[in-house]
Design goal:
Layout: H1 6-17, E1 25-29, H2 32-45, H3 52-59, H4 65-76, E2 81-85, H5 96-104, H6 123-135, H7 147-156, H8 170-179
Parallel strand pairs: 1-2
């Protein structure tokens, strides 16, 4: 959630109540170790230089769902909250768009489905881009762009690049799970 404080949540809720008689919130949560791997991919895309280990050590505490859901419930009321797992095994047809449509009562057949655009980097591409971020930043000190590095980043970010998924190690997953138990 990009709304971190109760005041922000309350402002959103009050804004929506100006236009709708009843407002409910559908919140999808994802296993913390999976979301950290996804966020690491985005960190690298956005010029980050931290290794996966350093990123996990820094970000491990970010997704305390108990605290987050309690803040939402305290602000808008638990009766307005529906929580779903963002996991193909729990989603309608294994897909978030199908799941959302089912939950809110939309006819998926009447919708144009967008192509998936935001795919995670492969583990190999993420490491190469991370090293480039250290050695060849997107912008030089004079703010000019390093076009060779930019071209390599674009090619490594394409959805057809083959490689393994970014995954936390067994020890990292155990630490994240223990932290959020």
């Amino acid at each position: 959630s990009q709304l971190h404080t109760s005041n922000q949540k309350e402002a959103l809720h009050n804004f929506l109540l100006q236009f709708f008689d009843d407002v409910v919130y559908l919140i999808y949560i994802r296993c913390q170790e999976d979301i950290l791997a996804s966020e690491y991919s985005e960190h690298v895309r956005q010029s980050g230089t931290a290794t996966l280990t350093d990123f996990v050590n820094h970000a491990m505490h970010w997704h305390n769902y108990d605290e987050m859901l309690t803040r939402w419930e305290n602000t808008v009321g638990p009766e307005r909250i529906t929580v779903r797992l963002f996991d193909p095994g729990f989603l309608e047809d294994g897909d978030i768009i199908s799941d959302y449509c089912k939950v809110v009562g939309l006819d998926l057949a009447k919708l144009d489905r967008p192509e998936r655009e935001n795919r995670a980097l492969t583990a190999e591409a993420a490491e190469l881009i991370r090293i480039m971020n250290e050695t060849h930043p997107k912008f030089r000190p004079d703010r000019s762009m390093d076009h060779l590095a930019a071209t390599l980043r674009r090619r490594l970010s394409r959805p057809d690049v083959q490689g393994s998924c970014i995954r936390l190690s067994r020890e990292q997953r155990a630490r994240v799970r223990a932290h959020h138990r």
